[in-house]
Amino acid sequence: QSAVLCIRGGKFNYQGTKRWLEDNLDHTDSSLLQDNVAFVLCLDTLGNGDTMHLHVSKPPKEGSPQFTLLKELELVSESQFPDVKFSMVHKKINLADDMLAWEHERFGIRRLPAFTLSHLASHRLAQRASIMDARSVSPSSRHGAGEPPAGPHVDVQKLSRNTKLVAEALARVIYNLTEKGAPGDLQIFTEQMQVQDEQLSAVVDWLTAQPRAAQLVDKDSSVVSTLEYHMGHYLKDVKRHYVRADKRDPEFVFYDQLKQTMNAYR
């Protein structure tokens, strides 16, 4: 297995993803990437909620790996996580919009099958653009009894559950477990392979305490180093790709500093 770790630049119309695709499709033998990628799964806003939506630009055809993933997500959520309501949301890519709705649309434009998993039903919901994605606190410490914390807080228990759901569904796709007759409630990631909630909580605590805006993240960022460390622990080949915005890029407008003189008379 291998993974590419990049700051995708979500607030900048997924410039990280765009540049990675350009580097791997325009400057190399693009057929290698297109022939060996069954699908691309993008994860977005999975730290809360009891719903999970698979956002697609084109409904997957029956018999394709994409359709298999859809069915496995439905099966695992129904059999192992009945408190999660799973559904597919179809939305065509609107190239007339200045900003793409989801990250998978960057791949769809380049003819790579892709989806985005999110607990949000729409990209227009305010929670997605909020800067209040902070670590949740107990109601008794900051709020009145029963009053939820403000903003789209991160619920580690639900993040852990959603991680397990995605992992179980992907494993069933990779090993064709449904075709082999494995029951839907078969749990693959158990004992030492299961999600370690304490470790996940520690990572979330640390990440939500760091500035993660794309314009503040450089090559020496501790956020990137920490993500690379954790991914390198589980994956064989992790690489960094650095992207710097180009002034000639039509998707960006760069403004020079504006200096004004103010005179005060008495």
UniProtKB/TrEMBL annotation:
Disordered: region residues: 133-155
Residues making up the signal peptide according to the UniProt record: none
Alphabetic keyword roster: Endoplasmic reticulum, Glycoprotein, Membrane, Signal, Transmembrane, Transmembrane helix
Membrane topology listed for this record: Single-pass membrane protein
Entry GO CC: endoplasmic reticulum membrane
GO BP, sorted A to Z: regulation of signal transduction
Localization per record: Endoplasmic reticulum membrane
Location, primary (coarse class): endoplasmic reticulum
Superkingdom, natural source: Eukaryota
InterPro entries, per the entry: Nicalin
Family from the record: Belongs to the nicastrin family.
Protein name (Swiss-Prot/TrEMBL): Nicalin
